[in-house]
Amino acid sequence: MATVHHWTGLEAKALRLALRLSVRAFAQQLGLAVATVSKWESKLADTEPRPDTQAILDTALGRADAAVHLRFETLLSEMTSPLTTPRRRVTTSGPRAWEYESWADDLDRVVVALSRQNFAFADSLLTRWLGRFKAPELDEKGLYLFARSTALLGDLRRDQGVVLGPLSAQHSYAGARAVFTQLDIPRRVAQLDLSLAVVTEMSGKLEIAARNYETLAVDDRLSRRDRARAWLWVGTALSKDGQHDYATRVMQAATRDFEDLTEPDDWSVAHQKLALARRGAGDLTQALHFIDIARNSGTTESPMQRVRLDTAHGHILLSDTATRDDGHLVLDQAAQVAAQYGLVHQLRSIEGIKTMSEGPTGPRQR
């Protein structure tokens, strides 16, 4: 927002025009005589309001919205020049309000880009703002946007498979968590804890991840949906650790929560993970049943979800010698989509599944 160091008739006229008021209406709003305002506008920079009137003008500008501030600064810039105004009349403290609005709009665009795995565009939008401002120079609203941007950068890095290191999802999530802690927003802090637990699972620390998920699944700072997702991920970590039957029970409880909450996409993902848990338990009939439900439900068909579904489906098909070749075909298709969209973590998973399926007999014949 703009701050006027010292009011003259020039700034006063710019404010009146920015407010789109007549001389009479402006005088009435300030509680001054019409003649006083007329004097300001006739003498401009050659006259100065009294100290008490300076404070009245400060208040009028402070109460104005972002559009008025934009018009005020634009008008003042047009009305002055370096020759007529050797000293700086107006400064801004941090990003202007309309910049915050643009920033928030861009974050909405980032969310859409990430849902489509358009990583390059999402990265350019985030870099635009994170490279423009430093956290210490921002007010609370700016810090909130900074933290949201940093958290979304973590999502981008996670989806790209960069989970550890200085330019990783873990690093971004930790940075965002520190800012939300500073702002005292417990829900956001808990959501970052959940994201950090996902990174822990992705890095292979399954027992630690499961314990973290279990803690967050009963954390009142999180919404019911986030708590259900935490339970689902408890099951995921347990299944990866070989505890398939217990994982199935936990996942089924989360699935019921998603149904109660009317969350079709989460419900679909839960069936996908149930399918993998039953595959791990050797129950291929149930595994195929659950993966069919997952493939025929949900409302979002993003490249990421398509790759995950096809990877799970291919993994199940590989587990039966009768459908082994079909499984390889499905995994090959998933790998092509993963490579197209830069889904490195999914590519690694697909290659790992293929390697395990080859076993001691060597690679399949083509």
From TrEMBL:
Q: List the residue ranges forming a coiled coil, or say none.
A: none
Q: Which Gene3D superfamilies match?
A: lambda repressor-like DNA-binding domains, Tetratricopeptide repeat domain
The signal peptide annotation in the UniProt record is none
Superkingdom of source: Bacteria
Q: Which residues form the HTH cro/C1-type domain?
A: 13-42
Which InterPro entries does the UniProt entry name for this protein? Cro/C1-type_HTH, Lambda_DNA-bd_dom_sf, TPR-like_helical_dom_sf
What name does UniProt use for this protein?
Answer: HTH cro/C1-type domain-containing protein
Species of the source: Streptomyces marokkonensis
